[in-house]
């Protein structure tokens, strides 16, 4: 359906990635945000706190990130599209209720404007070292969706997609920005509201008494009943049956958790998203995401000037990972070069999917700045040999 | 001891509060003589007697013995994470302001791991009815020390007796700004039900502490006898003192239990404060979240 025009600031703007992300959320119909201040992410909620009173939205600054994430899960059960925003240390605290959101199958968006870690790390400087945490950070087995924008324009566009994916699959979507994209100011074009498609909450049409919260109805994702509509449903973070009742059996665990994995993994082809360029006939493919994808461009140009055939694969949806495409390319290219602002996270996934058919060369960077493009160029030249 | 000569049982579905419970989840997990079930009964009775719209009544629990209460109530019910019932409930209330939201959980959950949320929700005067069942111990995990365990009482992690000062919960709530604060024991069925009814009809952060027996762990570790002995103790040692100074409500081991309604005052809720403030500073441009929530609907 079309979005609510009240949240859409149509026009061409000069915005940083944080503001653009906030605008994307409002354009997507987000009307509840709970957050706790943390650099370099706070501008997202500052923007929303300023604009929400004009569109029926509520922002609350909670006492910590544990509370913020819990409030987001609670609010989403009313049908209000809900989001929280943080950076690494806050992301760690949110993991408890990200797990709850995954287990209760609660649509919501968690924005992480990444900075250098571990611990307090580099509060105002960039990093991309939370990529594995985005996938595995809470305990137990579950799957989420994660996205990574490379520009303020994408911060706007992909935030809308993040909300839509969270609704379709009833999962928390991790919006993995980095400080550079968050604080980079560029032109952002916001289309008219009638051009913005949003996915509404898939409310059940069954009457109360015939509805169970985790019963499937022609889809691997159950229909939703929101609090206050008379369904008197029960939901829990415990392993539960289709009624939402706790069931501590091996059989129920298998059904309950298996579906949390399957609903993402079996739909990975629909969810996976990446940009590809000049991979046909390439000797080396550079796999990257976020700000590093833009820095890598210069390294790629330098290498191409020396005659190397370099292709590009930029991850837009990071999780689920484009496993199939990497496997295909692994049979054709000599090597993958994977620059990222960490000591090797997504490169592990590239290496796994390459399965030894192509070399995988990490270009690590501990954070605090972006790569020197020369380092990426040299890695490409090494890979091409 | 009296002897039960003939067992009379009411059919489960004929129990007076059956319509408020998930009878398909019975039997519950609570031990014989546990006080939590009594508190649930009083709450259900209060719902019935106040005639609230049950479709708009939601209940949130955290984790622990009392944390199972939400799961047995036939309302929109959320069994959330340990300590986070209050912020979860905050999201529900702000996401759909017309909801009546009750938090029903234990002392360890709400004031141990969830203590920070408790004080901030009271400070904001978030519109939540908070029912805290205090059994002085972590029951679900096997009798560990709680932030409410009285000095010298034994727990599995204070095997030689507790040496940490416990919370005085009514004082904590009152000093953070809660507009309604009461304490009862699970023996005070009539007064507790009346207190629930009164609180249901009030607004803001309403806090009711209910002292309840844990005979399996607290009584056993402290050699206090059976559930019956604990109820006898409440009978002999509870003293009703409405309006008592909340500074004087500490609970000492096997000593006087001051009960009653200590605070009952008007104070604007978080939502009142927010709406009034935005109306004042933004005027007609302010668009509050509709009572039914911020879910966007297909334009008509």
Q: Point out poorly predicted stretches of chain A.
A: none
- Estimate the mean pLDDT confidence of chain A: 97
Strand portion of chain B: 15-25%
Largest interface: A-B, 58 and 52 residues
Measured by DSSP, the beta-strand proportion of chain A falls in 15-25%
Number of domains of chain B: 1
Question: Would you give an account of this structure?
Answer:
The complex is a heterodimer of chains A (385) and B (300). Chain A has 385 residues and is α/β, with parallel strands linked by helices. Chain A has 2 domains: 5-195, Rossmann fold; 274-384, Rossmann fold, CATH 3.40.50. Chain A has helices at 17-27, 42-51, 65-76, 88-104, 131-136, 152-169, 179-183, 250-265, 268-271, 290-305, 323-330, 346-354, 373-384, and strands at 11-16, 30-35, 58-61, 81-86, 108-116, 122-126, 145-147, 172-178, 185-190, 234-236, 274-277, 284-288, 310-315, 317-319, 335-340, 359-364. In chain A, a hairpin with a 5-residue loop joins β5 and β6 (122-126). In chain A, α1 (17-27) crosses α2, α1 runs parallel beside α6 and α10 (290-305) packs across α13. Chain A starts with 10 loop residues before the first strand and ends with a helix. The model of chain A has no long low-confidence stretch (mean pLDDT 97). Chain B has a single domain (17-269), classed as Rossmann fold (3-Layer(aba) Sandwich). Chain B has an 8-stranded mixed β-sheet, with helices on both faces. In chain B, α7 (189-200) links the parallel β5 and β6 (206-211). The radius of gyration of chain B is 20 Å and the shape is globular. The model of chain B has no long low-confidence stretch (mean pLDDT 95). The N and C termini of chain B lie far apart (69 Å). In chain B, α4 (107-113) packs across α5. At the A-B interface, β2, α3, α4 and β10 of A face β2, α3, α5 and α10 of B.
């Amino acid at each position: 359906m079309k979005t609510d025009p009240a949240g859409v600031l149509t026009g061409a703007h000069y915005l940083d990635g944080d503001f653009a992300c906030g605008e994307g959320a409002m354009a997507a119909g987000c009307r509840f945000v709970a957050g706790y201040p943390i650099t370099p992410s706070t501008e997202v909620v500052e923007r929303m706190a300023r604009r929400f009173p004009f569109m029926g939205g509520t922002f609350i600054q909670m006492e910590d990130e544990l509370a913020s994430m819990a409030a987001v899960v609670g609010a989403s059960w009313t049908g209000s599209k809900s989001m929280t925003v943080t950076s690494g240390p806050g992301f760690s605290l949110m993991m408890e209720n990200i797990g709850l959101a995954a287990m209760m199958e609660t649509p919501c968006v968690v924005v992480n404007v990444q900075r250098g870690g571990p611990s307090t790390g580099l509060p105002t400087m960039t990093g991309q070292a939370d990529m594995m945490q985005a996938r595995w950070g809470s305990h137990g087995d579950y799957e989420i969706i994660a996205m990574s924008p490379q520009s303020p324009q994408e911060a706007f566009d992909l935030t809308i997609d993040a909300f839509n994916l969270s609704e379709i699959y009833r999962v928390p979507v991790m919006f993995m920005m980095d400080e550079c994209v968050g604080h980079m100011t560029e032109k952002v074009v916001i289309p008219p509201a009638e051009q913005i498609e949003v996915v509404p909450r898939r409310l059940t049409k069954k009457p109360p008494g015939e509805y169970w919260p985790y019963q499937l109805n022609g889809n691997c994702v159950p229909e939703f009943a929101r609090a206050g509509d008379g369904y008197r449903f029960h939901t829990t973070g415990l392993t539960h049956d289709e009624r939402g009742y706790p069931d501590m059996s091996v059989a129920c665990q298998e059904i309950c958790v298996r579906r949390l994995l399957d609903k993402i993994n079996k739909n990975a082809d629909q969810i996976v998203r990446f940009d590809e360029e000049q991979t046909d006939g390439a000797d080396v493919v550079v796999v990257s995401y976020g700000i590093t994808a833009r820095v890598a461009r210069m390294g790629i140009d330098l290498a191409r000037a020396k005659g190397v055939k370099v292709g590009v694969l930029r991850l837009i949806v990071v999780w689920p990972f484009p496993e199939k495409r990497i496997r295909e390319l692994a049979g054709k290219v000599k090597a993958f070069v994977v620059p990222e602002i960490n000591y090797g996270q997504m490169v592990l996934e590239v290496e796994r999917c390459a399965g030894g058919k192509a070399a995988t060369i990490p270009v690590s960077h501990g954070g605090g700045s972006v790569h020197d493009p020369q380092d990426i160029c040299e890695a490409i030249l090494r890979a091409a040999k | 001891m009296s002897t039960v000569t003939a067992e009379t049982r009411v059919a489960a579905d004929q129990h007076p509060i059956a319509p408020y419970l998930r009878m398909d989840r019975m039997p519950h997990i609570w031990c014989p003589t546990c006080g939590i079930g009594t508190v649930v009964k009083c709450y259900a009775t209060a719902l019935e007697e106040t005639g609230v719209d049950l479709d708009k009544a939601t209940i949130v629990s955290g984790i622990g013995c009392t944390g199972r209460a939400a799961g047995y109530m036939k309302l929109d019910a959320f069994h959330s994470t340990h300590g986070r019932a209050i912020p979860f409930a905050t999201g529900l209330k702000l996401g759909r302001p017309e909801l009546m939201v009750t938090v029903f959980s234990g002392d360890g959950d709400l004031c141990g791991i969830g203590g920070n949320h408790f004080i901030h929700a009271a400070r904001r005067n978030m519109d939540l009815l908070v029912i805290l069942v205090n059994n002085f111990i972590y029951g679900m995990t096997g009798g560990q020390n709680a932030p409410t365990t009285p000095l010298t009482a034994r727990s599995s992690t204070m095997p030689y007796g507790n040496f940490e000062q416990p919370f005085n919960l009514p004082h904590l709530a009152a000093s953070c700004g809660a507009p309604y604060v009461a304490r009862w024991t699970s023996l005070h069925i009539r007064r507790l039900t009346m207190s629930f009814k009164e609180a249901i009809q009030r607004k803001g952060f309403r806090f009711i502490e209910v002292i309840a027996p844990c005979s399996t762990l607290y009584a056993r570790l402290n050699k206090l006898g059976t559930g019956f002995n604990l109820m006898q103790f409440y009978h002999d040692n509870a003293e009703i003192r409405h309006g008592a100074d909340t500074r004087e409500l500490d609970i000492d081991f096997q000593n006087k239990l001051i009960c009653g309604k200590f605070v009952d005052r008007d104070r604007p809720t978080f939502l009142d404060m927010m709406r009034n403030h935005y109306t004042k500073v933004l005027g007609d441009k302010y668009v509050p979240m509709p009572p039914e929530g911020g879910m966007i609907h297909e334009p008509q």
